[in-house]
Amino acid sequence: MTDEVAIYHGSGVSMHFTISLEDGTVAETTEGDDPLHFVMGDETLVEGLELALFGLKAGDKQSLKIGPETAYGYPDPENIQLMDRSDFPEGMELERGVIVSFALPDGEEYPGMITDVNDKQVTVDFNHPLSGHEILFEVEILEVTGGEEPPAMQ
Predict the structure, then answer these.
(1) For residue 154, what pLDDT is reported?
(2) Which backbone phi and psi does 86 adopt, to 5 degrees?
């Protein structure tokens, strides 16, 4: 029996990670920065990325290709909205590729990327920027604490 704690639901996890796209472009990384600290199940990571961590222990490294269905999903055409240009502050830079933050009624901020602009309308895509992509998820587990151990095998 080992004293090493494996990652399960509720575990505190400290790790370094890199998420890369199919072409090798790094979308997000903690390398060269502080590690990510979170609790499994707190929705810090999308479910598919959490599933890749179950059972890993401090010192483990893993590299997995994860498809869109498990990672960030597929783009939803309903998340692309046409908005009147007058809905944006006068003088605001409205160009393709600009990320705009929108305030929701509950005070949360929600980002959208401008994908098209004309004299009357602005097209905003509210899909996650990584939706539709297969990603390479590379992790190095630094520390694991607590969590719900699965029942022992009989």
Answers:
(1) 44
(2) -70, -15
**Residue 113 confidence (pLDDT):** 93
110, 39: one domain: no
Cα 12-7-146 angle, rounded to 5 deg: 45
Structural domain boundaries, residue 63:
12-73+130-145
Position 98 in a domain? yes
Statement to judge: residues 134 and 119 lie in one domain: no
Cβ-contact 67, 114 below 8 angstroms: no
pLDDT (0 to 100) of residue 149: 62
The pTM assigned to this predicted structure is 0.75
Give a yes or no: residue 24 inside a domain: yes
Q: In this predicted model, what pLDDT tens digit does every residue of 107-128 receive, in sequence order?
A: 888 889 999 999 899 999 999 9
CATH number where 118 lies = 2.40.10.330
Q: Give the residue-averaged pLDDT of 87-103.
A: 89
